[in-house]
Amino acid sequence: MAILSARQKMGAAALIMGFSVLLSRFMGLARDKVISWQFGAAGESDIYFTAFVVPDFINYLLAGGYVSITLIPLLSALFEEDEEDAWRFFGAVFTWATLAILVLAALGWLFAVPLARFVAPGFTVEQQARLAHFLRIVLPAQVFFLPGACLSALLYIRRQFAVPALMPLIYNGFILLGGMLLPAFGLARGMEGFCWGVLAGAFVGAFLLPYIAARNGGLKICPALTHARLGRLAWLALPLVVGQSVVVLDEQFVRIFGSLGGEGAVSLLNYARRIMMVPVGVVAQAAGVASFPFLASLAAKEAWSEFDGTLGTALRSSMIVVVPMTAWLLLVSPDVLGFIFEGGHFSAEQTMQAAPLLRLMLPAVPFWALQQVTGRAFYARQDTVTPAVVGTLATLAALPAYIWLLPALGVASAMGVACVASSSIVLYAAALMFVAGRRWGRAAFDGVGKTALRSIALSLPGMALGWGAARLAGGLEAVLPPLARQFALLTASGLAFVVGWGLAARLFAPDYLRMAAGPVLRRLRKK
């Protein structure tokens, strides 16, 4: 019964994080809608999207995206042993994180001009100068992300998911407000407003909010430069720093190599990737984040049978949800892109250019889910070396493909970037699961492939009904404006898809229906 309760709590946590990511993605899409309307897929928008290559890399260099992963197991154990020592350890980590990010952000700010030339070799001299200006606005935001990640780790340890769920919403909200309000008041030109919004959102959403929540829970920061556990933390974090996997570099490769594809390629790839990352965030990342505290707790107890059961549940549940979402997006790719981005300076022609890129990226979405959850299983066992090594090998395998495909494809280089990006994620996820199966046994992975295949089969009736509904809604083109027609088409095809999938699941896989709807129904019953 305790195991069932833990799995139900994990499902509730996944629902909270998934809903947060869904709202955050919608806010991100709203932001990109404003960008596409005002700037289209060229010039200023290319520069803005590329401005995040250096800041993101600095964050990855300090394992900023993995602070919770490396800190949670060690800090959890210390809080069980000696609370005062745990606070001393946290203070030392917080001190080093703050100092390191301050130094790197300052260096990046000073060398913004040569960095702009390095990360955007396909840009003109004027574009590179503008890029350097954007870099100097968004780089200081990193100063708030890393210390904020340390504070978020405390909240995850306490199983407090609400504040971490709000953080990306506030961050995206400030970006959107900055982009719309600052130019309107004459305080910024072009896309500078979005850059200032990034800085403000990082301070409020990534740092101030978790700081207030942690302080209300008894936060104690004891600045220090030494602690006995720092060496262990560094050992866990080092593979993540050295072995930048294809997952964290995927977006950077899209931007760097996309800059060689001509004007608009970076923006088109970015818009397509934004849509692709919605199911990745809502299902894959939420499942990984929600499952990690439970997996870490079971690993600490060496309850390996329960660990395998929890891991298997997370993997299969992800496939049950993410495969149908991916199938529907494949069906309506042009209309999703058109509904969200088309208008203003973003033309229908650009929508049709982005649609094939999205369809090349979408098949990798289920593999994102497999990688996210399996990677967290390694981290829960305090093994950061294996995912880093496997990810580095996948990255090295992807680099020649990027370099060779782009010149070979010429004007179709954006297609090459999308294809290689998807293939590298598939390779990484498959290799990581293979290694995990060889090392721990196949118990956790049994049935995952079968679940994915059954999910594909169950999605076929939904795709058929969705296609028919889309064709009927498409007939409204003569009487409705494009935006209204696209909304009607997406609504009709989405509802038809859900009905088709639901009926098929009800007849042939009722356990899938229960697993997909269970967390939502439990939350509704509580209300």
Tell me what the structure shows:
This protein is an all-alpha fold. Helices cover 83% and strands 0% of the residues. The protein has 22 helices and no strands. The chain starts with a helix and ends with a helix. The model is unreliable at 1-6 (pLDDT under 50).
Features:
527 residues; mainly alpha; 22 helices; disordered N terminus
Q: Order of SSEs, N→C? A: HHHHHHHHHHHHHHHHHHHHHH
Mean pLDDT figure: 81
How many helical stretches? 22
Strand segment count: 0
Computed Rg:
23 Å
Topology overview:
Layout: H1 2-39, H2 44-50, H3 53-61, H4 67-81, H5 83-110, H6 112-119, H7 125-138, H8 142-157, H9 162-184, H10 192-216, H11 230-242, H12 246-258, H13 265-300, H14 304-331, H15 333-341, H16 348-361, H17 365-380, H18 385-409, H19 413-440, H20 448-474, H21 482-508, H22 510-526
Helix pairs in contact: 1-9, 1-13, 1-22, 2-7, 2-13, 3-5, 3-12, 4-5, 4-8, 4-11, 4-13, 5-8, 6-7, 8-10, 9-10, 11-18, 12-13, 12-18, 12-19, 13-14, 13-16, 13-17, 13-19, 14-17, 14-20, 15-16, 15-21, 16-19, 17-19, 18-19, 20-21, 21-22
